[in-house]
Amino acid sequence: MLLLQIDTAFIIEKILLITVILLGSLGIAMYLTWAERKVAAVMQDRIGPARAGIFGLLQPLADGGKLFFKEEIIPDRSTRTLFILGPALAMLTALMTSAVVPWGPDITLDNGSVISLQVADISIGILFIFGVVSLGVYGVMLGGWASNNKFSLLSSIRAASQAISYELAMGLSLVAVLMMTGSLSLREIVEQQHGFWDGYFTWNFFKQPLGFLIFLICAFAELNRAPFDLPECESELNMGYHQEYSSMKLGFYLFAEYINLFVSSAVIITLFFGGYNFPFMDKVAGAASPIVFSLICVLIFLTKIICCILFFMFIRWTLPRFRYDQLMRLGWKSLIPLALFNMVVTGAAILWIFK
Question: For 151-171, b where at least 16 C-beta lie within 10 A, e where not — what string?
Fold first, then answer.
């Protein structure tokens, strides 16, 4: 009976955490569309959304309502099942990647029970993220191919080739980080970046600056964000792989992009900027209760994520789009050799320090 009660409490805890992360990701993705327009407006000396509520804060709700009530159109020549499956798969994979992200430290209650702010602390968290991200390409490919539209097909082929090219450099850039941490668990990687300075800068950004730069560039390509938004190049391919989509199927594709932006920023902060760690956190932990301290850590983590997202948006409205041959050349001839060089230098440094 006691075992049953423990399992029930554990299941309820995880269901509540999943619900909070799911609704939070959807809400943040919805308001990232508003933030994107506001950032663009500031950089282009415009006002941006301003009519729907104060500062246009109700604009995402208006956009969502518009997509929800628009007519559902499925082209006659499309492959109906795959046409419907494409945006669903894109949305599913975007939400799954948040399962292994540690959003804050464990909360220890007065009765000794521990609440984890991570859905699943698996020992291969990095491999899980890479596997799910790789599956996300199938949502784009299915949508482009099932539309039976030549522009959509070309766009989906571009997206797949771009993802394959930059996943290699991204994986190689992470090898150096994993060599230093000795673990694939995101929780363990965050714990090894405890605080900010304990005799030296503990965040992996200071230990692996080249690896971080390569990972960041590859993240732009994986997210199809400018200047790597070749799959949605409107001057060549109209709207891209979701050209034939309307209503909430189009909304799923658009929401998936912003959820991926949010989760990718969370992964970048987790790997290179200490996750929920911050300077003088031990002093704060001694002065605050465990629940308050955990909430502070979560807020610090979210603040870092917001700063990373704003940087992504700043780059979008700053740099021009690459040509496709430049995109491929950068990935294969520059980033992969740099990632290999960084991996070799890191291995040599580890051997020299621990010989």
Answer: bbbbbbbbbbbbbebbbebbb
